[in-house]
Write a structure and sequence with these properties.
The protein contains 13 helices and 19 strands. The strands form 4 sheets. Strands 6, 7, 8, 9, 10, 13, 14, 15 and 17 form a 9-stranded mixed β-sheet that branches. The chain starts with 17 loop residues before the first strand and ends with a helix. It has helices at 32-40, 99-111, 137-155, 163-176, 188-191, 195-201, 241-244, 252-266, 312-325, 339-345, 357-369, 404-413, 446-456; strands spanning 18-24, 50-54, 60-68, 89-94, 127-129, 180-185, 209-215, 221-226, 228-232, 272-282, 294-296, 302-304, 330-335, 350-354, 374-376, 394-395, 421-425, 429-430, 440-441. Strand 4, helix 2 (99-111) and strand 5 (127-129) form a beta-alpha-beta unit. By secondary structure, the protein is an alpha/beta fold. It folds into 2 domains: 18-135, Leucine Aminopeptidase, subunit E, domain 1; 141-456, 3-Layer(aba) Sandwich (Aminopeptidase).
Length: 459
């Protein structure tokens, strides 16, 4: 798989680019000469509708695209809804959209070109788009490329995306941008004091790893930590078959931080970036860790194992402890961590927790501006008692079933005590196709973070 092979770009501007004219439902913004044609074809500007106006030789003179009702908030990437219906050609956008709405439209058009074609040939997009005037082309292309990288990594099945392959993707990315990398593997995880990562991954025939990427030599220090569980059987607390079917996406946190890292590096943000990914497979053999085991983490905190299917927080714990040792200005973790988060907010919203007041204030607006919705959840201190089992410092799977996403976040917070910390409990998957978002792997929170970082880190 060629890294960023599916990253779409804008087409070069040409004099013969076809005008793509956007129309809001109920507003008469069409040229008088086209009004009769549009009326005859029943075009009213409804969401996802289009009407092709032919030229005198039977080709395409221009196309009208319906955006639906102005101000509607029920859909994202409304212009992308017409992208797959357009006749073959290169289009330039004529629209009254501006600001963040125009950026969203431009990004949606690029993302609509994404295809995951590693295993089966997919229909090639017929339409290509010139960057609309007023759009930061480099930024939009970087965001699209980062998202497509994330999608490719998540969509690849675990047979072809094990710890070694995830490591190679990370190494290829950092080499592309001129950074440095270090990988700790197998038994070296024990000698380098990453006992939880080793314990979770040791039952697999594919050795566990800790991937450590660095880029940039000036500015504030940002560390991204991504859960890289390439497949999760549940361990000895084996998942039922129906719950195991999507577990190739359990490295969605790692895929998302790599996508965000690409955006940061491609845009040359003035910061020192570190990316930590514990890459493991939670499998079953005679060496698998057991319910009832008590494990000691890199930080020295002990953890009672009450469910081997709550393994993500274990591998993140060692990585977070390492992250804080470097005294960064901000630590951000991303993980497909709990089903409780999906019950709380569904698949579209990315819930986040933060100890940083600036992040809490800035991130929701940044998310709205980038069509990347997030929702703040609380680090609710009274629930700390739920993750304290008595026999050890921490419980990896509190009983009772209440507040599962919050207790997981509180568990992780124990490993970041002196640094501003933000944690995302993402889904990493679109269960149904939507404009610019095909069914399958999906990044969540990366664009929102990219937009928030300049204020959070005072760049």
């Amino acid at each position: 798989m060629s890294l960023l092979a599916n990253a779409p770009k804008f087409a070069a501007s040409t004099d013969d680019a076809i005008p793509l004219i956007t129309v809001f439902a109920g507003e008469d913004t069409t040229a008088e000469s086209d009004a009769a044609w549009l009326a005859a074809n029943g075009f009213t500007g409804g969401f996802g509708s289009l009407c092709v106006v032919p030229n005198s030789s039977g080709g395409v003179a221009r196309v009208y695209a319906g955006l639906g009702a102005k101000g509607q908030t029920r859909r994202r990437f409304v212009l992308a809804a017409v992208a797959g219906k357009l006749p073959k050609g290169t289009y330039r956008i004529e629209t009254e959209l501006n600001g963040t709405d125009l950026d969203e439209a431009a990004l949606g058009l690029l993302l609509s070109a994404y295809r995951f074609d590693r295993y089966a040939k997919q229909a090639t997009p017929q339409a290509h788009f010139v960057a609309p005037d007023g759009v930061d082309t480099a930024k939009v292309e970087a965001m699209a490329a980062g998202e497509c990288l994330t999608r490719d990594l998540i969509n690849t099945p675990a047979s072809d995306m094990g710890p070694a392959e995830l490591t190679q993707a990370a190494l290829d990315l950092i080499e592309m941008h001129g950074g440095a990398a270090e990988v700790t593997q197998g038994e070296d995880l024990l000698t380098q004091t990453f006992p939880l990562i080793h314990t979770v991954g040791r039952a697999s025939s594919r050795a566990p790893r800790l991937i450590d990427l660095r880029w940039g030599n000036s500015g504030p220090k940002l560390t991204l930590v991504g859960k890289g569980v390439v497949f999760d059987t549940g361990g000895l607390n084996l998942k039922p078959g129906a719950s195991m079917g999507l577990m190739k996406k359990d490295m969605g946190g790692a895929a998302t931080v790599l996508g965000l890292a690409h955006m940061i590096m491609a845009l040359g943000l003035k910061l020192q970036l570190r990316v930590l990914i514990p890459a493991v497979e939670n499998a079953v053999d005679g060496s698998a860790f057991r319910p009832g085991d008590v494990l000691t983490s890199r930080k020295g905190l002990t953890v009672e194992i009450n469910n081997t299917d709550a393994e993500g927080r274990l591998v993140l714990a060692d990585a977070l402890a390492l992250a804080e040792e470097d005294a960064p200005d901000q630590i951000i973790s991303m993980a497909t961590l709990t089903g409780a988060a999906r019950v709380a907010v569904g698949p579209d919203l990315a819930p986040f927790y933060t100890t940083d007041e600036t992040m809490a204030a800035v991130l929701p607006k940044a998310a709205s501006d980038t069509a990347d919705p997030v929702w703040q959840m609380p680090f609710h201190d009274p629930y700390e008692a739920m993750i304290e089992p008595g026999i050890a410092d921490l419980d990896n799977a509190p009983s009772g079933g209440f507040a599962g996403s919050i207790t997981a976040a509180l568990f992780l917070r124990r490993f970041v005590t002196d640094t501003p910390y933000t944690h995302f409990d993402i889904y990493g998957w679109n269960p149904a196709a939507a404009p610019a978002r095909p069914k399958g792997g999906a990044g969540q929170g990366a664009r929102a973070l990219l937009a928030a970082l300049p204020q959070v880190l005072d760049l």
